[in-house]
Amino acid sequence: MRKVRVSICTGTACFVMGASEIMLLEDNLPQDLRGKVEVEGIPCLEKCKDSSCGKAPFVLVNGQVVQQATVTTVIEKIRTALNA
Ligand code: FES
User: Fold this and answer.
1) Which residues form the pocket of ligand 1, taking CB atoms under 6 Å from any ligand atom?
2) Which ligand 1 atom sits nearest the alpha carbon of residue 12?
3) Which of 8, 9, 23 to mutate to test the pocket of ligand 1 (most atoms within 8 A of CB)?
4) Which pLDDT score is estimated for 15?
5) 35, 30, 43, 42: which is closest to 74 by C-alpha?
6) Which pairing describes strands 4-9 and 37-42: parallel, antiparallel, or unpaired?
7) Ligand 1 centre from 82 Cα, in Å?
8) Of 9, 58, 69, 71, whose CA is between 20 and 30 Å from 51?
9) Residue 84 has pLDDT above 90, yes or no
10) pLDDT of 24-67, one tens digit each?
11) What are the chain's domains?
12) In what order do the strands lie in the sheet with 59-61?
C-alpha cells in the first residue's frame, strides 16, 4: 500500500507558527493511521512570503497544501487522501 506523504515546512515562519508541534505528528497518529504515513521536514516553501497563499504553518499532504495546519487538520487531510 502506498503511504501518504506529509511534508512539513520547517522554515522559520512555519516553525514558530506551529510546525514544530506538527513534526511530532508520527507520535500523535491515531492507531488506524500508523504505518500509513511518511513524515518529512522540508525547507521553506516560499508560501510565507505570499499572503494570497494563506497563513503559516504550511504542510503538504501528498503535494496538496494545507495552510494554518494543525495536527488535527493534517490528520483530516491524511484520511481524505487515504479514501481518495
Ligand atoms: S517558512 Fe514555511 S513557507 Fe516559508
Assistant:
1) 9, 11-14, 44-48, 56, 58
2) 1
3) 9
4) 96
5) 30
6) parallel
7) 26
8) 71
9) no
10) 999 999 999 999 999 999 999 999 999 899 999 999 999 999 99
11) 4-83 (3.40.30.10)
12) 37-42, 4-9, 59-61, 64-66
Report angle CA 60, 55, 8 to the nearest 5 degrees.
Answer: 25
Contact 78, 69 (CB under 8 A): no
Position in ligand 1 atom list of the atom nearest CA 57: 2
Cα of 1 to ligand 1 centre, how many Å? 30
Span from the CA of 10 to the centroid of ligand 1 (angstroms): 7
Closest C-alpha to 8, from 58, 50, 73, 51: 58
Q: Which atom of ligand 1 is nearest to the CA of 11?
A: 1
Write out the three cell numbers for 43. Answer: 525547507
